[in-house]
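Bit of a strange request maybe. I'm writing a small parser for C-alpha cell strings and I need a real example to test against, not something I typed by hand. Could someone generate the C-alpha cells for this chain?
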Amino acid sequence: MSCGDAVDGEYSNWAGAEPNHWYGGEDFAHYWSDGRWNDYPVDNGNIDGYVVEYGGFSDDPNVQLSDTKTVTVSADEPPVAEAFGSDETVNLGEELNFTATNATDDQGIYGYGWAFGDGTTYPVDPANESVSYSYAGDGNYTVTLTVEDTANQTATATLNVTVVDDTFVIANPGGNVTVDQFESVTLNASDSRASEGSAPYQ
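Reply from user aminoacidic:
Good idea to test on real output. This should exercise your parser:
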C-alpha cells in the first residue's frame, strides 16, 4: 500500500493520505460519501459495505459469497372516513360546522374535501379538516366528506341536512272600529311580526 498516491497507476481517487494500511490491517476498500476511496479493516462496524477485488490468479480458490435479508412489505390500506356528525335540520342561513377529526389512515392522511349538495365543493386540502357552511336556499342536501391518504387512496362519508325557510310575516292593523263619516281613525300595527323582527309598516 502507498500513502495518498495511486497504486500501480490505478485507483487514483483516494481520500487524502489514503490508503495507509493503518496498523497493517486495512485490506478492504470502501467509498466515502463524496466518491473518494479509503481502506478499512474488514471488522469495522461503521461501514455498511466494502469493495472487494478478487481473482486473476490460477491458484485462486473457488469462493462463493452470499447473504440474506428479510424484507417485510405491508399493504397500504385506504383511509377510513368515520361519520362526521348526524343528520341535521337547520334554519335557512344558519351556519353549520363540520369536522373530519375521526378519519383515520394506517400511513397518514393527506387532506379532506367537502361537497355540500348544492354545487359548492371544497377541494381536498390538508387545511380542510374542519369547515363551516350555510345554505342560501331551503331543501334537502347531502354533505359528502372525502378523505385522501398519502397514497392517493380515498374514502367518503355522508350526512343529510334539511334546511327550513322559517321566514314569516304577520300583519295586524289592530281590531275593527266603527266611526262616523269624516271622523279620524287611529290604526295600531304594533302587533305585526316577522321572523327577523318587527315588520316595516306602510
